[in-house]
């Protein structure tokens, strides 16, 4: 197989980064990204892009840690290069605060982010309703910029981007040798995965450039994440809600909760309201599968279900998925040479 | 009781406000007048990035360390007030970088979360092997000075656009107390060989992805002669020039190149930053801040002068502590003039 044809479904952060990893590990592959939406209309465009991992209940912790570490290392190198502003990657420091001391005082990722330590009494004075906190420095991806940067790098390798709605993976079997499913929430319809469910998140994006720190309530519901041009205020976690319409009452509530963490936000301007559906699952599905229909086989690599933690682990899962694509190619080459006997 | 303030930088305006706040109620005849040839945005204070951070060593000057602390604590208390945004006041964290271990600074317990840098953090800054991380405050002159001006105007303080050539010029006109906040040019009012310019140059850029201050130190070349990056609310200030004795306020191409090259080396992401402005200014440097009373005879009349100048590169850092001290000196003058039965207690 001289030039395996790989279709990557989905153009969010998972689809684009997986496609890029495939071009890196398999330069002879011809890669096409297929999606009905591209930036700025993907779920990733709504996300704040903070590197603070979400814990998946059914994925082994060491695997999550490996994914996070690879992602952190990759983005750290970009943030320290001349490409940082174009890629939208920057360091940001701040605080995670808790109203009551958490059971787990040291999260699994505490030694991967920078300078992780408990907050001092003096620092906690800024948060009168909170009794415990952690200070650290991490990375943030300015999502629309990062997606555009990934697209640009993909195009430079010769990869194609195609706006196309695919309803069934089998639509692709005659044109492509391998299909990579990074369809996020779309996998619910595409492969009928009932373990995948939306967790609706509404956020505000505001202009408040004097806010230089992130602040996150340990309950994960209220957060302030300063980006390059706007600050993301959040949020909600509405399990099972499919609605993409912004809710004004929710917007007001998010604003109030964030102002109580950071009073200066009262002066924020240019408020935009956005909604995204986190493609959630008990464990991220990074898995090979060979579909079979009427004697025809279609190798598939799945990489979806990252829920609230897509940006935090994207590069790690993309690497794994690209490795699996390599395995699919070897398997195809093996079987094609067997076929010649 | 007429008080003339000479100078409308951060020192003049804050001293005036402090005095008016504390004494206007007690001395109904109090009239404050501010004289300056430069007002915001054309003062030295406007050029400063606005980061609260004293020099590395206090040279045993405990009084200045206390004034620094007073300023920090005062500003921290204002942080959650509705005025904070208008004042240009916000929290900021960042890095101080060294090529060798150094003793902790006098201000380590004044700022928040002071700690040494971890090995992984130092990897971000090749060439530096030691450093600190802490959370401090920004007080941007371009917002703070107009805010002070508004508060003073509301209180009926008068402003005069005028270059004062001598103390006599204001005291002769019936002024009882002169507050000398003339900064760099205090020597023109009264010779002071200890007051020397510490020339600085900065490049203002658009780099909104920078969220931390980064200040490098080269112990051999002295304070502020090593690159620094300080992100404001709109622009990021790049600097690293301190030339003692240089009175030039012209931008130097050589200094521009030094600042640009060294800051881009420190933070490669800055290569893509758009340059918006360049500025040179003179830090009013002195071995210690001159904050004291002087009784002068000007013409045939006695006059009380309160000097408050020589704040070098830490004017914003120390301003409120000095303003309070100047107000205390003013209080003692009032007491002597029997304008007050007892000195006022500390303001809450």
From TrEMBL, chain A:
Gene Ontology molecular function, alphabetical: D-aspartate oxidase activity; FAD binding
Substrates-to-products reaction catalysed: D-aspartate + O2 + H2O = oxaloacetate + H2O2 + NH4(+); D-glutamate + O2 + H2O = 2-oxoglutarate + H2O2 + NH4(+)
Enzyme Commission number, as recorded: 1.4.3.1
Pfam families xrefs: DAO
Location in or out of the cell: Cytoplasm, Cytosol; Peroxisome matrix
UniProt KW keywords: Cytoplasm, FAD, Flavoprotein, Oxidoreductase, Peroxisome, Signal
Signal sequence, renumbered to the chain: 1-19
Record PROSITE patterns: DAO (PS00677)
GO cellular component: cytosol; peroxisomal matrix
Record-annotated FAD dependent oxidoreductase domain positions: 5-323
Primary localisation category: cytoplasm
GO BP term, pick one: L-aspartate catabolic process
InterPro entries the record matches: D-amino_acid_oxidase_CS (IPR006181), DAO (IPR023209), FAD-dep_OxRdtase (IPR006076)
Highest taxon above the source species: Eukaryota
Transmembrane segments: none
Cofactor names: FAD
Residues given in the record as D-dopa binding sites: 223, 278
Residue sites binding FAD per the record: 43-44, 166
Described function: Selectively catalyzes the oxidative deamination of acidic amino acids. Suppresses the level of D-aspartate in the brain, an amino acid that can act as an agonist for glutamate receptors. Protects the organism from the toxicity of D-amino acids. May also function in the intestine.
Family membership noted in the UniProt record: Belongs to the DAMOX/DASOX family.
PANTHER family recorded: D-AMINO ACID OXIDASE, D-ASPARTATE OXIDASE
Protein name (database record): D-aspartate oxidase
UniProtKB/TrEMBL annotation, chain B:
GO biological process: D-alanine catabolic process; D-serine catabolic process; L-proline catabolic process
Catalyzed reaction equations: D-methionine + O2 + H2O = 4-methylsulfanyl-2-oxobutanoate + H2O2 + NH4(+); D-cysteine + O2 + H2O = 2-oxo-3-sulfanylpropanoate + H2O2 + NH4(+); D-valine + O2 + H2O = 3-methyl-2-oxobutanoate + H2O2 + NH4(+); D-phenylalanine + O2 + H2O = 3-phenylpyruvate + H2O2 + NH4(+)
Binding positions (FAD): 44-45, 49-51, 164, 312-317
Domain of life assignment: Eukaryota
This enzyme's EC code(s): 1.4.3.3
Residues noted as binding D-dopa in the record, renumbered to the chain: 53, 217
Pfam families: DAO
Enzyme class: oxidoreductase
Gene3D superfamilies, per database record: D-Amino Acid Oxidase, subunit A, domain 2, NAD(P)-binding Rossmann-like Domain
Keywords: Cell projection, Cytoplasm, FAD, Flavoprotein, Oxidoreductase, Peroxisome, Phosphoprotein, S-nitrosylation, Secreted, Synapse
GO molecular function: D-amino-acid oxidase activity; FAD binding
Protein location: Cytoplasm, Cytosol; Peroxisome matrix; Presynaptic active zone; Secreted
GO cellular component: cytosol; extracellular region; peroxisomal matrix; presynaptic active zone
Ranges of residues in domain FAD dependent oxidoreductase: 2-329
Binding site residues for D-serine: 228, 283, 313
Assigned protein family: Belongs to the DAMOX/DASOX family.
Name of the protein this chain belongs to: D-amino-acid oxidase
Species whose genome carries this gene: Drymodes brunneopygia
């Amino acid at each position: 197989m001289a030039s395996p044809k790989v279709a990557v479904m989905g153009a969010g952060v998972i689809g684009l980064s997986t496609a890029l990893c495939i071009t890196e590990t398999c330069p002879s592959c011809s890669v096409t990204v297929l999606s009905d939406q591209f930036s700025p209309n993907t779920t990733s465009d709504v996300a704040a892009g903070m590197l603070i991992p979400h814990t998946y209940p059914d994925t082994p912790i060491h695997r999550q840690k490996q994914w996070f570490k690879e992602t952190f290392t990759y983005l750290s190198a970009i943030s320290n290069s001349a490409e940082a502003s174009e890629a939208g990657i920057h360091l940001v420091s701040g605080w995670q605060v808790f109203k009551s001391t958490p059971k787990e005082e040291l999260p699994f990722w505490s030694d991967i982010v920078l300078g992780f330590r408990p907050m001092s009494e003096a620092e906690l004075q800024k948060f009168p309703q909170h009794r415990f906190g952690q200070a650290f420095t991490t990375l943030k991806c300015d999502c629309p910029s990062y997606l555009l940067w990934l697209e640009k790098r993909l195009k430079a390798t010769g990869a194609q981007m195609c706006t196309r709605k695919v309803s069934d993976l089998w639509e692709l079997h005659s044109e492509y040798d391998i299909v990579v499913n990074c369809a996020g929430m779309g996998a619910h319809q595409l492969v009928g995965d009932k373990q995948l469910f939306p967790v609706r998140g509404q956020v505000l994006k505001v202009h408040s450039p004097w806010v230089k720190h992130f602040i996150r309530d340990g309950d994960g519901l209220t957060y302030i994440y300063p980006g390059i041009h706007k600050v993301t205020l959040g949020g909600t976690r509405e399990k099972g809600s499919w609605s993409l319409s912004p809710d004004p009452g929710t917007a007001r509530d998010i604003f109030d909760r964030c102002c109580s963490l950071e009073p200066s936000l009262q002066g924020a301007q240019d408020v935009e309201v956005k909604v995204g559906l986190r493609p959630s699952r008990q464990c991220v599905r990074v898995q090979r599968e060979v579909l079979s229909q009427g004697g025809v086989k279609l190798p598939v690599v799945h990489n979806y279900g990252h829920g609230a933690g897509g940006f935090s682990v994207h590069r790690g899962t993309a690497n794994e998925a690209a490795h699996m694509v390599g395995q699919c190619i070897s398997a195809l080459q093996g079987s094609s040479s067997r076929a010649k006997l | 009781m007429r008080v003339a303030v000479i100078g409308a930088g951060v020192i003049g305006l804050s001293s005036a406000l402090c005095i008016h706040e504390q004494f206007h109620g007690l001395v109904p005849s109090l009239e404050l007048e501010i004289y300056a040839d430069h007002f915001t945005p054309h003062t030295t204070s406007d050029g400063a990035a606005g980061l609260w951070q004293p020099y590395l060593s206090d040279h045993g000057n405990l009084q200045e360390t206390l004034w620094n602390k007073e300023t920090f604590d005062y500003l921290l208390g204002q942080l959650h007030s509705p005025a904070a945004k208008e004042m240009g006041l916000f929290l900021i964290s960042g890095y101080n970088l060294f090529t060798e271990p150094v003793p902790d600074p006098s201000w380590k317990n004044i700022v928040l979360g002071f700690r040494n840098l971890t090995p992984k953090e130092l990897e971000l800054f090749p060439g530096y092997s030691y450093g600190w991380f802490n959370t401090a405050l920004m007080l941007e002159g371009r917002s703070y000075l107009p805010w002070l001006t508004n508060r003073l105007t509301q209180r009926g303080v008068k402003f005069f656009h005028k270059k004062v050539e001598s103390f006599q010029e204001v005291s002769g006109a019936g002024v009882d107390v002169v507050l000398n906040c003339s900064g760099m040019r205090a020597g023109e009012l009264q010779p002071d060989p200890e007051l020397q310019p510490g020339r600085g140059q900065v490049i203002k850029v658009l780099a909104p992805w920078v969220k931390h201050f980064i200040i490098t130190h080269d112990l051999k070349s002295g304070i502020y002669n090593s690159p620094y990056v300080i992100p404001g609310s709109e622009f990021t200030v790049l600097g690293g020039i301190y030339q003692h004795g240089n009175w030039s306020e012209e931008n130097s191409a050589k200094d521009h190149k030094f600042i640009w090259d060294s800051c881009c080396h420190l933070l490669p992401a800055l290569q893509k930053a758009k340059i918006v402005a360049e500025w040179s200014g003179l830090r009013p440097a002195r071995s210690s801040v001159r904050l004291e009373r002087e009784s002068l005879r000007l013409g045939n009349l006695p006059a009380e002068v309160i000097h408050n100048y020589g704040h070098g590169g830490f004017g914003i850092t120390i301003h409120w502590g000095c303003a309070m001290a100047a107000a205390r000196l003013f209080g003692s003058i009032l007491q002597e003039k029997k304008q007050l039965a007892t000195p006022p207690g500390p303001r809450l």
